Amino acid sequence: MILYGGTFDPVHNGHLAIARAAWQRLGSPVRMMPAADPPHRPPPGASAQDRAEMLALAVADEPGLCVDRRELERTGRSYTVDTLRALRADEPDLPVAMLLGADSFLSLPGWKDWRDLFGLVHFVVAQRPGEDSVLDPLPEPLAAEVCGRWAEDGAALAAAPAGRVMRLGQPLHDVSATALRSRIAAGRPWQHLVPAPVAALIRTRGLYRDAANTASWL
Ligand code: ATP
Questions:
Q1: Looking at residues 31-53, what average pLDDT do you find?
Q2: How far does residue 18's CA lie from ligand 1's centre (Å)?
Q3: By C-alpha distance, which of 202, 199, 195, 105 is closest to 150?
Q4: pLDDT, tens digit, 9 for 90 and up, residues 167-191
């Protein structure tokens, strides 16, 4: 199982590109898991319902991708470690990989019970444009925790339930949700950065037009 957590505020072509790459490289479907109430950042610009609806539209024609609503169905804050502990109660031995961008991977030491995450999942890390060398070398204390965990391919991940770290090594896509929201608020071109049905929903609901709301994210 591959879990891809994020705010997806909104989902964009960069998210979809790394999800597809992970599916193709590891041969396992990618479950895109929107956070209900992100603990590591300000509240999202769109409701959890809108974000989940955009995700559902985005994956509708993607054979290897689906939406995983488990964090939306729980009350309280979406700490990744709580989500994964709940998953492990049902699936103790299943290999599970968590897909994330290099920026999120580097922020792991700020996450709740972050060292425990390595006992719960593998990590598949996607490089982001402009961050070519951020993983070389890793900063402490992440470097010490990751030492000895690097895996070259999906076979190493399939051989254990958790504990390895792999680079995705996918083509880079220079898009972020922050840049997308500010383009929408500023009336600059943005529709090429999301799938057409997602663009249609953003337009119909008038999402992210409020510059004041968007500015608080920058
Ligand atoms: P924001 O700009 O608001 O931080 P984001 O575009 O990073 O948003 P998130 O929902 O926070 O979107 O991202 C979910 C995950 O996807 C994170 O781990 C992030 O690092 C990763 N990610 C997002 N965009 C890209 C991209 N273009 N390339 C690789 N990884 C990405």
A1: 82
A2: 10
A3: 105
A4: 999 889 999 999 999 999 999 999 9
Q: How far is the CA of 132 from the centre of ligand 1 (A)?
A: 15
Helical spans, DSSP H, in 122-215: 142-146, 154-158, 177-186, 196-205, 211-215
Q: Is the CB of 135 under 6 A from ligand 1?
A: no
| DSSP assignment string, 70-139 | HHHHS-S---HHHHHHHHHHH-SSS--EEEEEHHHHHTGGGSTTHHHHTTT-EEEEE--TT-TTTTSSPP
Q: 113-138 pLDDT, tens per residue?
A: 999 999 999 999 999 987 667 788 99
Looking at residue 42, its pLDDT comes to 62
Q: Which atom of ligand 1 is nearest to the CA of 101?
A: 20
Between 135 and 149, name the one with better pLDDT.
149
Q: Is 46 in the pocket of ligand 1 (CB under 6 A)?
A: no
Determine whether the shortest distance from the Cβ of 176 to ligand 1 is under 6 A. Answer: yes
Report how far ligand 1's centroid is from the alpha carbon of 9 (Å).
Answer: 9
